[in-house]
């Protein structure tokens, strides 16, 4: 598939802070794309620049091969759903949703039809005469969504759309967003700092750090083949061992662990990444230690084992196999399941 | 232990202060309905002093002048004060500039009055209602600015961005989003400007021309020859108008808080 939105070498600086540093991304049509990263990584700046609310210092952005940056915000075929929702407090739900269509000077019957349709889609038709102050958080979020998609933008930008909702409503809304994206056939770009959210919702993720894109991949690739230590640490839960490579081993904190096949040369600095679910408990193991605590997560538990490293080792364990706290655990894994990354 | 819900002996200062606050005004209103023309002796109920007011061309002229000044002051203060508040909130974030814009509200009247008179004289400007309007707008504007500025800092600045994102022009955004959001503050500020101008004496006394006295100036010149009962009636009318407008302004602020 050819690229739809092409972001090429964009940069933006605020005083001493490099918010975006030479960022390039290609986003495909009808894709659900996530910009993920810790706060201050530049993801929101990039999103606002795409909406036209922020100017860029350099770089080119094209949408369907046409320059986007020279188009003012109110003429871009792009709509933004704000983190605060930014619903107009003096207008009711209907007028909020109709606002953008009225600015397009469409005829009344068409506006009426499209607003009714979108309100039905987000199940808010019964609340159409209410003011935003009379709605719950989830309802406000759906009004904000309806107001943006009713314009039928080529791209819908979502700035932390679910961060103000509690956990249960949030997972329902994640499903809802996926369904809407599928039905509306619109390219969605979502900004989030929540890696679980990005993993469960997006087709592809761009992980950003300090104004730069660190890795662009599907959620599965990002998890199973992280490019750097930062990615391995940010995505999912992992045990990281930094050390020096030997022949098929890594020496870390005075201990030696087996490594998978690698192109890295012996003697170089590297990080061994071990996911909790790749480690198993047994009668004997590569390393052993005392179980310090276990955290219950529904179907499985996460064990914290003290094996003499600076950090506790995290091990995923089925619920009925959790040993008592204080007992000795023997941890083993297949070296091929672990990931070895150069440490820079 | 439950706090007793009776005030006990604290009732004494409470009611004492309330009496202190409202006794003079009560006497004024009471005496304005006195039949006798002695300001000290009650001889029976009458509304004749109110009809004296209505039939006095002098007072009615002053009332008209005061209304012209108050309405013009309100309009100028609303427009300039709102623009200044938006400028301060959105385009020139400087606390020093903000202080400079808001201090006319707390300038001593006398200093402002003398300064304005000196300015008008040095500019060879003739004095009249127009000079009173300029002077009143100068200090009333600061009140409107303060109230609208406060409201602007409460509203979500992404509302305007959202309007533009949905395809509105900057001018359309101002009239459809910004103005409705700050409308209650503009109304409250305008009503405050009206009451401040309506009974303002010191600045009007210095900057008005002799042929167009405002109501407070007329009251002052009448009092110089002793307190007559129609003064009581006139002061009661001024009091009621101010009280009415302050009440409307406060209601309006309450409604605004509910939105």
Automatic annotation (TrEMBL), chain A:
Name listed for the protein in its UniProt record:
Unannotated protein
Entries under Gene3D superfamilies matching the protein: 2.40.50.100, P-loop containing nucleotide triphosphate hydrolases (3.40.50.300)
Q: Where in the numbering of this chain does the ABC transporter domain appear?
A: 5-235
Name the InterPro entries on file.
Answer: AAA+_ATPase, ABC_SmlMolc_Importer, ABC_transporter-like_ATP-bd, ABC_transporter-like_CS, Mo/tungstate-bd_C_term_dom, P-loop_NTPase, Transp-assoc_OB_typ2
Q: Which GO terms describe its cellular component?
A: ATP-binding cassette (ABC) transporter complex
The GO terms describing molecular function are: ATP binding; ATP hydrolysis activity; transmembrane transporter activity
SMART domains, alphabetically? AAA
Q: Which UniProt keywords apply?
A: ATP-binding, Nucleotide-binding, Transport
Q: Name one Pfam family in it.
A: ABC_tran
From TrEMBL, chain B:
Q: Which CDD domains match?
A: TM_PBP2
Keywords, sorted A to Z? Cell membrane, Membrane, Transmembrane, Transmembrane helix, Transport
Gene3D superfamilies registered for this protein in UniProt = MetI-like (1.10.3720.10)
Name assigned to this protein: Unannotated protein
Transmembrane domains' residue ranges: 12-33, 67-88, 100-121, 127-148, 185-206, 231-249
Biological process terms in GO annotation: transmembrane transport
Question: Would you identify the family this protein belongs to, as annotated?
Answer: Belongs to the binding-protein-dependent transport system permease family. CysTW subfamily.
Bilayer topology term: Multi-pass membrane protein
Q: Which PANTHER family match?
A: PUTRESCINE TRANSPORT SYSTEM PERMEASE PROTEIN POTI
GO-annotated cellular components: plasma membrane
Instruction: Show the InterPro entries listed in the entry.
Output: Bact_Polyamine_Transport, MetI-like, MetI-like_sf
Q: Which residues form the ABC transmembrane type-1 domain?
A: 63-249
Q: Where in the cell is it found?
A: Cell membrane
Q: What is its main location?
A: membrane
Species name for this entry? freshwater metagenome
Q: Identify the Pfam families for this entry.
A: BPD_transp_1
């Amino acid at each position: 598939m050819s690229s739809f939105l092409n972001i090429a070498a964009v940069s933006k600086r605020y005083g001493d802070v490099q918010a975006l540093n030479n960022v390039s991304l290609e986003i495909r049509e009808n894709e659900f794309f996530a910009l993920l990263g810790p706060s201050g990584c530049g993801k929101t700046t990039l999103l606002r620049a795409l909406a036209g609310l922020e100017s860029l210092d350099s770089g080119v952005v094209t949408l369907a091969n046409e320059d986007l940056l020279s188009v003012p915000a109110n003429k871009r075929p792009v709509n933004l759903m704000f983190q605060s929702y930014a619903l107009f407090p003096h207008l009711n739900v209907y007028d909020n949703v109709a606002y953008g269509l009225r600015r397009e000077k469409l005829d009344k019957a068409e506006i009426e039809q499209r607003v009714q349709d979108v309100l039905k889609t987000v199940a808010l038709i019964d609340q159409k005469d209410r003011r935003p102050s009379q709605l719950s958080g989830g309802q406000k979020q759906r009004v904000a969504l309806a107001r943006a998609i009713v314009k039928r933008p080529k791209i819908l930008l979502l700035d932390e759309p679910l961060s103000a909702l509690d956990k249960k409503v949030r997972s329902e809304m994640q499903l809802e967003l996926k369904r809407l994206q599928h039905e509306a056939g619109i390219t969605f770009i979502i900004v989030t700092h929540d890696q679980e959210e990005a993993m469960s919702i997006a087709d592809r993720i761009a992980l950003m750090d300090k104004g730069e894109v660190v890795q662009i991949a599907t959620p599965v690739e990002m998890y199973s083949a992280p490019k750097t230590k930062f990615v391995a640490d940010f995505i999912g839960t992992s045990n990281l061992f930094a050390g020096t490579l030997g022949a098929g081993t890594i020496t870390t904190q005075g201990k030696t662990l087996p490594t998978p096949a690698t192109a890295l040369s012996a003697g170089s600095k590297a990080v061994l990444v071990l996911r909790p679910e790749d480690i198993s408990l047994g009668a004997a193991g590569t390393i052993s230690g005392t179980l310090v605590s276990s955290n219950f997560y529904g179907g499985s538990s996460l064990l914290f084992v003290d094996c003499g490293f600076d950090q506790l080792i995290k091990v995923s364990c089925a619920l009925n196999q959790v040993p008592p706290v204080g007992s000795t655990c023997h941890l083993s894994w297949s070296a091929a399941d672990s990931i070895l990354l150069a440490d820079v | 232990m439950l706090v007793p819900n009776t005030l006990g002996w604290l009732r004494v200062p409470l009611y004492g202060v309330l009496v202190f606050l409202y006794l003079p005004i009560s006497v004024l209103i009471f005496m304005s309905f006195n039949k006798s023309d002695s300001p000290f002796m009650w001889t029976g109920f009458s509304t004749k002093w109110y009809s004296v007011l209505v039939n006095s061309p002098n007072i009615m002229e002053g009332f008209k002048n005061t209304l012209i000044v108050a309405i013009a002051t309100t309009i100028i203060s609303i427009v300039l004060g709102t623009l200044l508040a938006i400028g301060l909130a959105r385009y020139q974030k400087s606390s020093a500039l903000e202080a400079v814009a808001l201090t006319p509200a707390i300038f001593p009247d006398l200093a402002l009055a003398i300064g304005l008179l000196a300015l008008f004289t040095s500019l060879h400007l003739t004095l009249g209602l127009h000079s009173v309007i300029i002077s009143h707008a100068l200090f009333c504007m600061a009140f409107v600015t303060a109230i609208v500025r406060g409201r602007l800092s409460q509203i979500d600045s992404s509302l305007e961005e959202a309007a533009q994102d949905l395809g509105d022009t900057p001018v359309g955004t101002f009239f459809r989003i910004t103005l409705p959001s700050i409308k209650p503050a503009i109304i409250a500020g305008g009503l405050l400007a009206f009451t401040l101008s309506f009974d303002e004496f010191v600045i009007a006394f210095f900057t008005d021309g002799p042929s167009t006295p405002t109501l407070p100036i007329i009251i002052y010149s009448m009092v110089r020859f002793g307190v007559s009962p129609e003064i009581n009636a006139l002061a009661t009318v001024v009091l009621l108008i101010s009280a009415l407008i302050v009440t409307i302004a406060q209601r309006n602020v309450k409604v605004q808080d509910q939105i």
